[in-house]
Amino acid sequence: MSLTQSVLEGNRLSLSRLLTQVENNSPEGRAALIELFPHTGRAHLIGVTGAPGTGKSSLVNQLTLYYRKQQNKRVAIIAVDPSSPFTGGAVLGDRVRMRDLSGDEGVFIRSMASRGSVGGLAQTTASFTQVFDSAGYDIIIIETVGAGQSEVDIARLAHTTIVVEAPGLGDEIQAIKAGILEIADVLVINKADRPGVENTERALRTTLELAHPTKRVFRHHGQVMSIDAPEANAKIWIPPINKTVATDGKGIAELAESIAKHVAHIRHSGDWALRDRARLGSEMEAVLQGALMSQFMSEVPKDKYKEIMEKVIQRSISPYEAVKILLNGNSK
Amino acid sequence: MSLTQSVLEGNRLSLSRLLTQVENNSPEGRAALIELFPHTGRAHLIGVTGAPGTGKSSLVNQLTLYYRKQQNKRVAIIAVDPSSPFTGGAVLGDRVRMRDLSGDEGVFIRSMASRGSVGGLAQTTASFTQVFDSAGYDIIIIETVGAGQSEVDIARLAHTTIVVEAPGLGDEIQAIKAGILEIADVLVINKADRPGVENTERALRTTLELAHPTKRVFRHHGQVMSIDAPEANAKIWIPPINKTVATDGKGIAELAESIAKHVAHIRHSGDWALRDRARLGSEMEAVLQGALMSQFMSEVPKDKYKEIMEKVIQRSISPYEAVKILLNGNSK
Lengths: 332, 332
Known about the structure:
The structure is a homodimer.
Chain A: H1 3-8, H2 12-23, H3 27-36, E1 44-50, H4 56-71, E2 75-80, H5 89-101, E3 107-112, H6 118-134, E4 139-144, H7 149-155, E5 160-165, H8 171-181, E6 186-189, H9 197-211, E7 215-220, E8 223-228, H10 229-232, E9 241-243, H11 252-269, H12 271-299, H13 302-313, H14 319-331
Parallel strand pairs in A: 1-4, 1-5, 2-3, 2-4, 5-6, 6-9
Antiparallel strand pairs in A: 7-8
Helix pairs in contact in A: 2-3, 2-6, 4-5, 4-11, 13-14
């Protein structure tokens, strides 16, 4: 039986081997992605992001346990950790995970701790979701460890993006938060048993109101009217704020409920299809860009590239001029 | 007088206008970059990165004041903040900055708060450094607000990368730290008047020893020998750990000293030139990639692209197959 066939039938060892091939971008991995692609499009992708220290991993574990026990859904977790493989991160998180989730055949956890280009990470994440999707996982959680732009970009690949906060984080974190709030479909204040939870909630509500005004002003038969936004347009989704204590499992059922409502909303509004389209569009662009680049590099003589690069180093031509010369020379 | 001429002569208003053109990637901006490029290659680029809450902005301000007062150097600061423009980050940091540094003609501060693709941010940062470099700024500090992979990638464009830590950050932050430690040329424990500074320093030293073993084993005339690394190879740079209290200016002179030693080291070892080469190489690649993509997109019929994209959305062909079809069709 082929590796892809074995993955489609749910073999965990084959799945694990295929993910490694995909991560290494091997010819077998690429061929398998092509074969598996028609079997994708069913899974619900959930992105989880937020500043370090907010307890994302515990939250993801609890949510996974909930989906397993209450809804018998199969869950895959992709933990994207762009930090170095040589210590810390992935290992630490995985140890906690093993305790809570190990031995459950309905859960598959894979971390990507390898460094490399940001583009590479995003593309590997997209490919991983396709593998899990085709292997029949109902829910795929993409958890990003950092809180930078690239992590946010990866998390927003999902149908539902959860932004996790915690009380008592400093001003600078608040500032970063404002940026990621815009992409939140569901907000979570984790560690909600800690002091300062009211302040955090108030700050979030204020920021949310800036991003999603609850009053909309419009003209109706020439008169200026103002009504509450949800009534004005049923298509508007106001991100709910959920409070959780992940270590105790508190608030997890309510969070799952918020997520379910969001899924229903985007299925109804057409946003689910739009997000799928945007995700596949970016993926196609990334593949195209890579293919164009390697095609070009295989055609341009190495000596010529080096020679032009040397002129740039010497500051006699700029990178822009260098590229112009390369492109003209190549088309002749 | 042309805008570039005016920038070369130190006109601040022209500089500001040019940066906006570069940020918008306007034809004038691109033309100016080509004109200015031969005037670059003199500035010392310093990258500053680290987790939120470590006090990076205050540290950058104090370091800038030091370079102004003690060494009369002209300093440009590029604050890269990938978070949203609509609240927080850049504004907050800028307000602190205005208090400390405003009115000094030898300092120029520019934030990039606009969101967009990560690649775009890195490319704009590279272009900004060229503008400041050609305008005669001796030191260009690239400060990144987040702590994700993209921020790290941007900070490492520099000749000298400073990683800032603070006592008392949680486990998850420690884990991220491991990743960014690898790129540190100089380590700073800021807020060193806080409790826990010894623990932080010990943890950093342990991690550093993993990354840079102080004993090297090698073979000499057939015998296995082991000696201290710095003696074994004078080219090895062990990142020093500096302790600072940026709000009081404590430890800033010593930090400047560490930075000066690093510059002397990389000038001597040839690493300065290697880093320049790597930076210009990546920039050229990014420009080439963009040019190839826009050339391709201008040649491929829009209807055809849409039609193939639609097949991907329907899951009848995979993104890889779609790209193959696009590339073959286009070359015929």
